[in-house]
Amino acid sequence: MTRFARWTALAAASALLAAGCSGGSPDDGKGGLSWGRCKATADGPAPSSDWQCATLEVPLDWSEPDGETIGLALIRAKARGGDRVGSLLFNFGGPGASGVSMMPSYAPTVSRLREQYDLVSWDPRGVGASEGVRCRGDKEIQAAESVDVTPDTPAEERAYFQDAADFGKGCQKNAGKLMAHVSTADSARDMDRIREVLGDKKMHYFGISYGTELGGTYAHLFPKKVGRMTLDAVVDPGADAVGHAKNQARGFQRALNGYLESTGQDPAEGSRKIADLLRRIDAQPLPAGTPGRKLTQTLAATGIILPLYSKDSWPTLTSALDAAERGDGSELLALADGYNERDTSGRYGTTTHAQRVISCLDDRQRPTAATTKKLLPEFEKISPVFGTFLGWDTAGWCHDWPVPGQHDTPEVSAPGAAPVLVVGNTGDPATPYEGARRMADELGKGVGVMLTWRGEGHGAYGSGSDCVDSAVDAYLLDGTVPKDGKVCS
Fold first, then answer.
1. Active-site annotation holds for 428
2. Is the pTM higher than 0.90?
3. 204, 353, 399, 458: the active-site residue
């Protein structure tokens, strides 16, 4: 079953560069890591010689620090300038995004920060080169695209939940003992070990999307270790699984309304038209120009979701919707394939596999089908286009999951921590703006510092606002904390 939408990586609308880790010359005396040239993988070429890779061994179970270990893949590029602050650790979201793959492609966005920081990222446990989890094969993934994620009949409902249960069993078969040790709290403890081996007294960190929840969790567990921390595209720490789904329904509908207004359409009428298109596709999937594949309702909705992550992609959405209205599903299918990491040879990425394994270990809430059915009218009212998908997703995502969840909501209070810069974008579709305010409040008085951008798209830094970029740069490079409540428009 394809996850329709959750928090996702900053890279949702861009191709990821892939890089592997290989051994090499010893580190410069700090932490015992052996840094060497990054190597190419089947997914892409190696990054330039500016980048080094290493593997860090950490405990599988942090309650048994001297027990079995797993390897975490790291990547870094050293600071260019002489006035080095330290290492700046990045997490790009998901959960499930590969920092080893994403860091080189994101580096131009943060080139100014590299003047004073080593740029560092990693594949969190269960992700990519760090014991990455794959829950089913490519043929199984493609076959599951035919499962209706908004079931209308008892037979479709049985198929939906059977597919969800089968996915969990596949994860358990592949991950084994790791399945119970990939939580956000586990990764936060890994972060502190990374800080330690890099030789930094404080954690300087840039978290995006789900990376903000990871940063908040780190701040809660290690408040005295927090250095300069920026959280952008913020996940609401006060929302449970159902609350997150409602937040995303609200956020994507807002983004869709903004798109429709930009094309001169009334948002209500435009949404009704798109909802009607999706219902027609549900009844009769569209040909998509690819042998053996058609555009299903779920793939169509996924294709609509992807361009909403960036205002620059809105013209692509116009073209794809126009084609679908003419009976051609090829453009929406191509967009859905981009979201689902499917390449032209039919190979799929595993970001959503890791995402599900991590989030279902975090989330204790397990809504039933009956609960979801009662919630559907509320979801549909929030979003006539996306509400039904996200409503059903609350019941299917962790259905019959092999391991129990750990909490309803994450704890991010960090009394005594240094100021944490929380950046919210009022037009963010995946992590609606309200979550940033909640994060700033829950971090605690004197800790959470709120910076608002009145913009569009997922995230704010590097999205075209000189006001946002200069405020974040001044904070990370000089330690200048902006006034709480500052607004960039």
1. yes
2. yes
3. 458
